[in-house]
Amino acid sequence: MSFSQLGLSEPLLRAIAEKNYVEPTPVQAAAIPVILRGKDVRASAQTGSGKTAAYVLPILQGLAINRRESGRRVRALILVPTRELASQVGESVRRYGRFLPEPIKTLVVYGGVSINPQMMALGGGADVLVATPGRLLDLIDHNAVSLNSISVLVLDEADRLLALGFAEEWGRIAGLLPVERQSLLFSATFPPAVTVLADHLLRDPHVIELAPLLNQEPSILERAIEVDAPRRTQLLRFLTVENGWTRVLVFVATKYSTEHVADKLRRAGLDATALHGEMSQGARTQALADFKVGRIRLLIATDLAARGLDIEELPVVVNYDLPRSAVDYVHRIGRTGRAGAQGVAVSFVSAETHAHFQLIEKRNVRVILREQIQGFEPVESEPPVLVAANGGGIKGKRKSKKDKLREAAGLALPVNLVTNSVIPREPVNKQPEPKEFFPWAQRVMVGRRLR
Ligand code: AMP
Fold first, then answer.
1. What is the pLDDT of residue 190?
2. Residue 383: its pLDDT value, please?
3. CA of 15 to the centre of ligand 1 (A)
4. CA–CA separation, 205 and 42 (whole Å)
């Protein structure tokens, strides 16, 4: 299958050739001809599957046929969950549309920056508006944009949009859209809330179901390394240097951890920077740009900041803190191994998070070999015992029968699964300080039982 067989016009084929795409990705091959025919589409497409071009190319072709009318009208509206994804999609629209005979006016709007320039820019309307829902509603409230001329609506990363509370915003946006329109919904996963949204939004949609990322030919090598929580930064540093990783996207659980881990890595001599949702837009853009060009080696990010990022040739993703859910795991590791490139996704698993990681594996129908790295073998082999700050017991925290059984199982000596050898336990003289931040153990001290 080649792009020219999909029915795309010459200026778009030129832009594709300029991007050096040899052939369409599966979602492009399936979606482009259907969107060109004007049908609604519901597609399961992971980030990294080429989904942006799958909808942007046919939308541009449709827009190029008719001219825009004057006024604050918008012809194509693309809703995305984050600012970063909005910028990326806007950039793609500009790139793919650059050889069209009539220029396509593309605007990108998102929150966290001043609304005035966006209102000014929208004065003459736009062919394509890429927006995050909250800012779009702000602009509507300011009477800066009209949605009644929308001919195509895209919800990109619909599952992510809903996770950010989009359901409430959607009600208001939907009421302003014309009934006659083409609607396209892309989502990596289809939890019930997305299915409900899809039923509400789409009319007789063409459904594109591609094999989920984890069932495809694995272009991502998944590794799970057992390590005690307080030694993760040292291990991260060791792995980065030892493997010569040039760019590593590291996921942590909190904004505090992004700063804390980045700081520790910098003090250990590595270029690392934090990326989280509470940084100013300027600082976020700068951090990302530095990371993309390789000025920063490790980007320490929260899920919120990293959603939808497309960083070409990102070789390594590290789950320093495990993701909350199995779906988040798929999203995180999908940041590497994109568009056919090889990638490595490393998850740090400690005694505390071992059960949670098993659940992620189970939900993703996956078993990942546990490894231990020489010099970083864990000494903790059971979950921390929660102790009240005054040293007394906590009501309801007595060991259950299950806990006792787990404890007994924990007595088995750990095995290095790479070499298949038993790792002898070193006598531990000193209990390490619980320096790390455990979000689930606030207001209690974390006591670790060490053997
Ligand atoms: P997306 O899933 O839209 O975020 O795209 C992921 C990456 O794949 C981007 O870097 C695109 O430039 C790239 N890409 C999109 N389509 C193709 C294609 N047909 N061949 C090779 N790379 C592509």
1. 81
2. 55
3. 13
4. 6
Both structure tokens of 116: 């005035």
Cα–Cα distance, 5 to 20 (Å, whole number): 17
Domains, the chain, with CATH or none: 3-209 (3.40.50.300), 220-371 (3.40.50.300)
CA of residue 347 to ligand 1 center, whole Å = 25
From 5, 8, 18, 19, give the residue whose CB has the most ligand 1 atoms within 8 Å, as the site to mutate: 19
Residues in the chain: 451
Q: Which of 12, 32, 52, 312 for a ligand 1 pocket mutation test, highest count of atoms within 8 Å of Cβ?
A: 52
Between β-strands 41-44 and 182-187, what pairing exists: parallel, antiparallel or unpaired? parallel
For residue 389, the CA-to-ligand 1 centroid distance in Å is 52
- Give the Cα separation of 168 and 348 in Å (integer): 36
- DSSP, collapsed to helix, strand or coil, labels residue 128 as strand
Mutate to test the pocket of ligand 1, among 4, 25, 87, 130 (most ligand atoms within 8 A of CB): 25
Among residues 154, 147, 152, which one has the least CA distance to residue 185?
A: 154
Mean pLDDT by 10 residues, the chain (451 residues): 92 95 92 96 86 97 81 90 91 96 94 93 93 95 93 92 80 91 91 84 91 53 92 96 91 94 95 90 86 90 72 82 88 70 87 92 81 89 51 43 44 38 39 34 28 27
Q: In what order do the strands lie in the sheet with 182-187?
A: 106-109, 126-131, 74-79, 152-155, 182-187, 41-44, 206-209
Asked if residues 262 and 408 have their Cβ atoms less than 8 Å apart, the reply is: no
Q: How far apart, in whole angstroms, are the C-alpha atoms of residue 302 and residue 319?
A: 10
User: Within 6 Å (CB) of ligand 1, which residues are found?
Assistant: 21, 24-25, 28, 47-53, 310, 312, 338-339
Q: What is the DSSP string of 142-191?
A: TT--B-TT--EEEESSHHHHHHTTHHHHHHHHHHHS-SS-EEEEEES---
Give dist(CA 81, CA 87) in Å, integer.
11
On whether the CB atoms of residues 161 and 193 are closer than 8 A, the answer is: no
Residue in the block written with tokens 């605007």: 107
163/345 Cα distance (integer angstroms): 23
